[in-house]
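Bug: token stream looks shifted between consecutive jobs. Job 1:
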Amino acid sequence: MKTTDKSSTDAPKAVKKKSHPFWQWFWLSFLVGSLAYAWYSFYVPANDVVWADDTVSAREIASESDKNMLLFFTGEWCVPCRIMKREIFADKEVMKIVNAQVVPVMIDIDDPDAAEIVQQYQVGGTPITIFTDPDGQVLDYAVGKIGKAKFLEMLDDLGGAGS
């Protein structure tokens, strides 16, 4: 009688099953879509809006030039703010009107130096767009992300875009 000694090399080998092509396509598409969305959310092109350094200097400039002020409350982490910066403030038409008609100030609500103005206008979130007269009295405001058409309409209602 022959004895057969089964060694570990004779054991059935585990066969790695290749995934279905649908899942390969799905995960590749998911990755590409996710990267595109991340780029869309965080990309902000440079703009030529002449932002004032702070609200004090903006008020002085607004008083001297008889212009209203644009206060844009934002945060480094704020995705809707980044989208507004890309879709509104990087637009050539908007840049031209903003520079000609108002004194713009971008205010980072996380900056400790901005705490007083954030409290003054009771800003609790971002983005918030406020138009004021040179004395700081609110003329118009929008809470949340707004589009170019709404922004230009707000400027026009101030009498700035059509002048």
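Job 2, same session, no restart:
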Amino acid sequence: MSIEKEIQQSKFRNAYQKASINLIYTVGWLRDKTKAIFDTEDITSQQFNILRILRGSYPQPLSTLQIREKMLEKMSDTSRIVDRLITKGLVKKIICKKDRRLVDVMITDKGKKLLERLDERQEELDGLLNHLSEKDANILSDLLDKIRDEAE
């Protein structure tokens, strides 16, 4: 459905405003769809992102600063999200071997198993964009990269 129909607005100041509004609306739509999948495992998208990052670095632990640098959504409350993952038994804190004053974070077996269950739903996650051809998905990705490149 067109953005005009979705938000019941037929006029935009220009094509750039329409594209910006469409992008913001679509991000919200995509967030809602992925939230429904993550809710089945009682995690948030930010928790999923941290687990994914830690699985990628496994068996090497990461500091919360390193995690924050790799996150899709940069935020200051990474430590709080990590604490919630610890409470759920999905990650653990370990003493940094290089500097015993620091603490690193590592994914647990329980966290890896949760990601394995979500891996089984990867087609469902990918399916959120399956109305696009692979060529269109690459074009979209390139355009999104271009928006960020131009803004920097």
